């Protein structure tokens, strides 16, 4: 059985305190036809999640106020969003960061700066999981 995905039906949230990263992700995802919701930190993201109901979330690790690990943990503890795939974003490609991300429930890890291809490949890998929920 093949499931056809319409990118325009999929809403992706990008949480990052860097306007450059948010803008890059918005351009890359938008060009591929996805709807994009931007948040500049964990608190902003949590406030927007209930209104926008993203199918997939990219979350920076190093952010002020509420870091990515805390944000991911709160998303995964949420009754409504615990199955939503969360991909951690970091400029560090360390084993410790990956392990800590996995401990709080992240589904994958993408190193910054990302390319359009690596970002879209990650979305495709988690799109069926997101649509299946």
TrEMBL record:
The modification 4-aspartylphosphate is found at residue 60. It comes from the Bacteria. The keyword Transmembrane does not apply. This is Response regulator. It comes from Herminiimonas contaminans. The lineage of its organism: Bacteria, Pseudomonadati, Pseudomonadota, Betaproteobacteria, Burkholderiales. InterPro entries: Bact_response_regulator (IPR050595), CheY-like_superfamily (IPR011006), Sig_transdc_resp-reg_receiver (IPR001789). Residues 11-127 form the Response regulatory domain. Keywords: Phosphoprotein, Two-component regulatory system. The keyword Cytoplasm does not apply.
């Amino acid at each position: 059985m093949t499931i056809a995905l319409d990118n325009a039906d999929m809403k992706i949230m990008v949480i990052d305190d860097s306007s450059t990263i948010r803008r890059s992700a918005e351009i890359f995802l938008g060009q591929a036809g996805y709807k994009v919701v931007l948040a500049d930190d964990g608190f902003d993201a949590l406030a927007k999640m209930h209104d926008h109901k993203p199918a997939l979330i990219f979350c920076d690790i190093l952010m002020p106020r509420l870091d990515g690990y805390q944000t991911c943990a709160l998303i995964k503890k949420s009754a409504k969003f615990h199955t939503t795939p969360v991909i951690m974003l970091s400029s560090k490609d360390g084993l410790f960061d990956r392990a800590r991300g996995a401990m709080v429930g992240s589904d994958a890890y993408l190193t910054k700066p990302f390319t359009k291809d690596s970002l879209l490949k990650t979305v495709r890998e988690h799109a069926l999981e997101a649509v299946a929920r």
